[in-house]
Structure formats: C-alpha cells, structure tokens
Amino acid sequence: MPEVWKNCGRVSAPPPDAVISARDLRKHYGPVKAVDGVTFDVRQGEIFGLLGPNGAGKTTTIEILEGLRRPDAGQVTVLGIDAARHPEALKERIGVQLQTAALYPNLTVRELIDLFGSLYRRRRPSAELIGEMGLEERRDAMSGQLSGGQRQRLSIALALVNDPELIFLDEPTTGLDPQARRALWEQVARLREQGRTILLTTHYMEEAEQLCDRLAIMDHGRILEIGTVNELVTRHFRDRSIRFEAQAELTEARLSALPGVRRLARENGEVALYTRDVPGTMSALLQLGEELGVGGVDFVVRRPTVEDVFLELTGRGLRD
Fold it and tell me: What is the pTM of this model?
C-alpha cells in the first residue's frame, strides 16, 4: 500500500510514474521562508512548468531538486534517488540548463561540448548534439561569437551531453526574439518526444501554455495550484473577458454596474470585464460609451488564460 502524503491541503500518493516527488520541502534563511511546505510530483515524460513572481521560491526549490542545496525539512526523491543524501549519484542522470551560463568565450562549440562530456562516465557524441541543436554551421565558432539563440541552444546541448533522463530548463528563452524563441520551443518539444522529462521555469505565459503538460503556480514559498492549463482555467474562471483601453469617463462604478459583469480588473492601462453574458455586456458597454461621449470603444473578447489564473492567485505579474 503506497504511503500517503499531504499535498496542498489534499491527501495524495505519488503516482507510480513519478520522476520527482517533493514532500513538505522547507528552506528558511533566518525569518525568510524561501520554501515553505512545497509538495508536488513530476511524471515520466512530461514537461512540468514552475511559475512564480521573482522571490516566489522557484530557484531554491529547483536547487533542492538538483541536489545543490539541502532542505531544512521534508523529503525529495528524484529518479528514485534521495537528492538530499545522494546528490552525486543524481548529477550523473540529470541535465541542467541555467538561465545565464558562464561559457569559455574562446572555446568553440565543439570544444565546449567535448569538455563537458569528459566530466561524465556516460556521454553522447558531440556531433550528434551539434546536429540535434541545429549548430552544424557554428560548430567551429567560438562561444563568444554566437547569437543569443545559438548560445541558448548550446546551453541545452551541454545539458544533454550526459544523455540525461531528467532535464531542468531555467528560463531557456529569456532575451530571445520571437523567432528564436519559437525555434527553441520546437527543440524542447522534440526532447519530450524522445521520452525525456523536463522541469521548466519561464517568465512567459504563452511559453508555459504552449509547452507544459502541467503547471504549478508558486508564491511566497508555497505551491498555490497545480494542473493542466484547462484544469487551472476551469477551476478559477467560467467567464469570458472583454478587454479595452481604460478611459477616465468609464469609471469602475459604471462598468461594474453593466449587465453580466461579475468582476473588473485593471492592468497596464487596460480594463478587463469578466462576464458570462458577452453579448449583453458588450451592447451595454457600447451604449454607455455613446452616452458619455466617449469615442468608439475598441475591445477584445477572449477566454481566460493562465495569466488570468496567475494574477488571480498572486495579485502580481511574473516579474514583480
């Protein structure tokens, strides 16, 4: 009979295909509770996203999972290994891509992959990794001469050099242009197709929705919610949002009184009206604009997203 654990207020047992099982992890720095009772599982072959504002505790949690930091309390099993007690055994089987990696600028792509590969008992051929990451034309270029997208692809190649079963990707597309970001998404999706398990942190909501099979939203050292995109949205919203540019005449009191409006939110100069009666709310909004002499109100109707769930739970943006 499997041992039962407490998970975010609910009791659950780790699934049989769990690659990561974290139970009541805690890490305090004086009065600061960086990780405060974190419990979750990552399943074999999935991309699991960890989202949270700056200071939420994501980095400390991941460092515990990677065996780089010991928790003050709790248990963590990664690939069947106690990460706190046997970190060296774990490091042979995981790959880690850091948001900013300090690479030797005067070594070529091929030389760097060879160097990193020499540190492991098991390694993949450099030529194979170079081809997989689309770096064939830059194999003899020094890392200091690579573009941002090429450096990120090289960083992932270095994380794959020991043929890991589990890969940690820390904001892999930060600083990339949209084209390079989407190209890297394709690379990450291919890793999942190969059967690898990925734990991903990101500051891009669209990236989380596109790539992740499941998400955990974290803040103040705690996991607030876990689920698929649809599960998270359905759990918190059944409304549609009508979004438009904020105008002084369209006060919060007037907008809240429109038919069908259940709540209102303001962010980045926009107003979002949440309603289950989109036609009724839109008609009343247009009529209100005409009565107040406000020019044409341009609005967009959309289904709630992970970003809406995130703001609902944390009250702040990812980069706060």
Answer: 0.81
Token couple for 64: 């515990």
- Quick: pLDDT tens for 99-151: 666 788 899 999 999 999 999 999 999 999 999 999 999 999 999 999 988 99
Q: What is the dihedral of CA 104, 108, 112, 114, to 10 degrees?
A: -150
Q: What does the pLDDT read at residue 100?
A: 67
Spatial contact of 72 and 26, defined as CB atoms under 8 Å apart? yes
> DSSP characters for the chain?
-PPPEEETTEEE---TTEEEEEEEEEEEETTEEEEEEEEEEEETT-EEEEE--TTSSHHHHHHHHTTSS--SEEEEEETTEETTT-HHHHHTTEEEE-SS----TTSBHHHHHHHHHTTSSS---HHHHHHHTT-GGGTTSBGGG--HHHHHHHHHHHHTTT--SEEEEESTTTT--HHHHHHHHHHHHHHHHTT-EEEEE-S-HHHHHHH-SEEEEEETTEEEEEE-HHHHHHHH---EEEEEE--TTS-HHHHHTSTTEEEEEEETTEEEEEES-HHHHHHHHHHHHHHTTPPP--EEEE---HHHHHHHHHSS-TT-
Closest CA to 274 of 238, 306, 307: 238
pLDDT in tens, 235-265: 888 888 899 988 888 999 999 999 999 889 8
Integer-rounded Cα Rg, in Å, for the chain is 23
Start-to-end Cα distance in the chain: 43
Phi-psi group of 213: left, alpha or beta (phi > 0 → left; psi -120 to 50 → alpha; rest → beta)? alpha
Q: Domains in the chain, please, with CATH?
A: 5-233 (3.40.50.300), 238-303 (3.30.70.980)
Confidence band, pLDDT 50/70/90 cuts, at residue 3: very low
Least Cα distance to 308 among 220, 245, 243, 259 occurs for 243
